[in-house]
Amino acid sequence: MKQKENIRPNDEQDGNATSSFKDQNEVQPFTRRSFLQSSVLGIAAAGLSSFGCSTSKNIHKQDAKPPNIQGFEETSNVSDPYRGWEPVSDRKIRVGIVGYGVSRFGAQFGFQHHPNVDIAAVSDLIPERCTELAKACNCSKTYPSLEELVKDKSIEAVFVATDAPSHMRHCLEVLRHGKHVAVAVPAVFGSLEDADQLFEAVNKSGLKYMMFETSAFRASLHSMREIYNSRGFGELVYAEGEYYHYMEQPIDSYKGWRIGLPPQLYPTHSNAFHICVTGGSFTEVSCLGMPSIIEHLMPENNIYKNKFGTEIALLRTSEGGTARMAVSWDTPGDSGERGRVRGQKGTFYEKFEGSGKLQDNFGRPPLPPGMPLGGHGGSHGYLTNEFINSILENRKPLVDITMALNLTVSGIVAHQSAEKDGELLKIPQY
Fold first, then answer.
1. Residue ranges per domain, the chain?
2. What's the pLDDT band for 76 if we cut at 50, 70, 90?
3. pLDDT in tens, 189-219
4. Residue 280's closest CA among 224, 353, 220?
5. Ramachandran bin of 370, using left for φ above 0, alpha for ψ from -120 to 50, beta for the remaining angles
6. Closest C-alpha to 150, from 109, 195, 95
7. Which CATH number applies to 215-365+400-426?
8. How far apart are CA 377 and CA 354, in angstroms?
9. Positive or negative, the Cα torsion across 35, 40, 13, 298?
10. What is the pTM of this model?
11. CA dist., res. 375 & res. 360, Å (int)
């Protein structure tokens, strides 16, 4: 599918819903037609000044805090996460950050505190939020849109913290301007064609692409990955991942994209408990959902015509094993992101139990001193450090384009299966 030349201004990650359902009824996010073509975007900010930027490392206590949203709680019960850190380079990467919605995503991953980063510029469509993002990042150079920011030749990499329906389009624009890109989840939004296009664009560019999947650097999953790579599990027989986030009312979002969101279109937090452990993929899926009693999850009340608040997927893994991946918006009670695995040699349910003894320490790698761990189990700082180090060391980041699409596309097909009452469907492989 040819990329359109007329690029519209960027959306921001979780801004206010400003469009009626009638305005968005033409959205078809679950076909091989792109959702993005019918998105109507807001008005770009005007008259913003451009000045120089700095990145003081002792300002994070002043950062604007997001509302009380599950997952963004600061993690503080980690003993000395900086011990043993050694710099891989003294070079600084000039980074641009785009998006400062209700979750404050743009400033939540600590780019402004990394010793190898200079925040070169920031952007948000809404002028007030753009100003807040600049303040949180101690940066005074601003642009009214992503499309303007990427023209800045001094910027080497961009963190795309915009709304989910725009991730793919915005990443293409960043890559087109020769810059590395990090992006919030998911990689694409409901379109298999978009996945193919993004995969091709990243591979042709030769640039770094990383999706910031938070589960990948949760302490438990990091341990699972290290144990797996050390052959402590053997081949995995079974994996479970769960993303439970009760939303009697949806989280505020740009043009209401979160209202009635089909659960398996936001699948990466749960799918990570196999894919980010093994580096593998899912090959087939049968998924079931149950009609929800929550108002915004009734088909007449959302642009997706979605009726499911919970979707449970049963998947075949590329190893030949089985996985159960659950995403739920409408079941009250204990919430969060968690998972467990069972292998031929060992199992991880909060701790490792197996037939062999493991000699290595499977703790997360040290962070640069002063780098906050952030939310989602203290994963934020590790994601940023991994992305920056992948550029400095000229290597693939952990959640590269292959892993990002395997995490995302399996959910798209799972939702298609749920709409077909659990029909077993093949999943594209990357």
1. 215-365+400-426
2. low
3. 999 999 999 999 999 999 999 999 999 999 9
4. 224
5. left
6. 95
7. 3.30.360.10
8. 25
9. negative
10. 0.84
11. 26
